[in-house]
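Notebook, p. 212. Picked up where the previous page left off. The plan for this session was modest: take the two constructs that came back from the sequencing core last week, fold each one, and keep the raw output in the notebook itself so nobody has to go hunting through shared drives later. Recording the first one now, exactly as returned: residue sequence, then the structure token string.
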Amino acid sequence: MSVNVTMPALSPTMTEGTVAKWLIAVGETVPSGDVIADIETDKATMEVESIEDGVVAHILVEAGSENVAVGTVIAILAEAGEAVDAISATPVTAAADEAPAAPTETLAEAPANTPAETPIAVAQTSVTQTGMAQTAVAQKSMAETSKRIFATPLARRIAANKGIALDGLTGSGPHGRILRRDVEAAPAAPAVQITPASANAMASSAATGASELVANSQMRQVIASRLQQSKQQAPHFYVTVDCQIDTLLAARRALNEKAPDGVKISLNDLVIRAAAMALMAVPDANVAYEDTHTRRFQHADICMAVAIDGGLVTPVIWAAETMGLAALSQTTADLASRARQGQLRAAEYTGGSFTISNLGMFGVREFAAVINPPQGAILAVGAGEQRPVVVDGALTVATVMTVTLSADHRAIDGAVAAQWLQSFKGFVENPVTMLL
């Protein structure tokens, strides 16, 4: 029996992905465990391995296809002893697809536990059998009709670029699915005739409100969804404190002078270390709200926000409180480098108990960050800059760094947030205490 290769869920937040590259070809023998494709997720590009032995019979989703839903059959393997030519290009799916369809008129009598998509599948099969497709489509709205157009993501993109309506095409793929070749074979939409009057109107419009539409990447859509969820569901409150960091900077210089080759401790490494120690000192801040209970984390599993092309990722430094500064520095440098190259594994950016977002390198004085759900807090770190301060009644100049803690009031009270910031400030201004 043939084996379906489906789009895998490579992270808890992944709902769709892009087939970046196939590493196999039709007719090629694929042992179990071999890498068969590179899949772009919302966070990184990851290798996908075959879970079965077989011979590649069909590749159903072309390289470069975007927005392929998790669970979609992307290739079909023939098992040992099966003839590749005898394998159908139509995936063998759930038994519901093979069962005879009920007439369209009886859909309202379907059992209550029937999946939401079953009526559509049944209606399509029934319409095909009874020749009522045109009547059914005419009775549907344009929105409903568009949902019934089966086309690959690549075909949809090409059609949009060429101005071709998919509802006017006949697909040559399985079950009439519109493929790339169907779109490329169709004539492009006729060019719009521009009259002098319309040209003047367009020029006026461009002068007053020129713009362009840029498609949101899968990463941007996930970021938007998660942060909107965070702002809507988690009641944020903000606590800000100034930290004098002259002693911290001096300690950093001394540490780097004695550090072995290849180790360079950054200010961000020291901030992460101070945050980890503060989370251990104030465990009530190292929590996440989960409806009927609050999860308290045993370690300071700190996520650090890393800006990449098109968005950001938050690789996790697991049990940061157990790391020395040299090990912490090497870990953060490695995670940040691989994050920018899209080479993180799912386990390296999934989870965590607390997040740090540092915009100090961009000269930002202070800001308030949005909590990284489902965590309970995030620390926004600004730039260290020289400011006038009063010490023992005398005006002097010190290097000051402003930090703002955004906390989820469902899990963290104001007093707890203040205690955590007090502890963090203590470690930053007296860095020797981080070594105790």
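Okay, moving on. Second construct, recorded in the same format:
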Amino acid sequence: MGRPGITIMTDAYNAQTLHRLLAWMSPSFPIGAFTYSHGLETMVEDGVVRDLPSLTLWIEDVMRLGAGWTDGLILRRAWEQTEDIVDLNDLALALQPTRERRLEASAQGTAFMKTVRDAWPWPESGGTAFPDFGETAYPVAVGCAARGHDLPLRPVLLGYQHAFAANLVSAGVRLVPLGQTDGQRALAALEPVIADLVEEILTADPDDLGGIAFAADIASARHESLHTRLFRS
């Protein structure tokens, strides 16, 4: 029997949902997320991100004002399936501000799509999880897979945003560098940011796309000309 206010998850459907989300959003899921810094490498090189507070603030801004917000709305629209998915995928790729950010979105999305097709197909798709996009934007791929597996939208968004934040924290730990405990402090500080962002995405106008994380976009554009680089973006 659980403590007061704690619900023990015994329902098989909920357990299955959790299992699939943990698998898909795990750092071990083969999409190569660890190779992308989303422009963070440039910010560290410039000395803008240099410690735990500056790393946490930079990630919060990217999530609230940049790709965290835009990807979340794209994922929601893909999950809702109220429009042509091919057109939505084209829009998601067109919204990427730089060549490296397009690579970040499309390489991860295409790898996610292939892995889900091979390991997690669902009957309605006849064993193929998505239309043949060629390149697939990551939030579109996740939204389609979640809808195909009948996963509820809120936990999918939470998992996606947590994975995005965790990957940027991991990049910061390596680049600044910071200790692993500081990485966990950053994730703990970002927990309410992620929760608030998800609720805003769920209640927003689905067409309210766009970001104002200009520093992150410029950092991404400058990244390809850095003298030394550990990351692909």
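Notes on construct two before I forget. The first helix runs from residue 12 to 24.
Flagging for discussion at group meeting.
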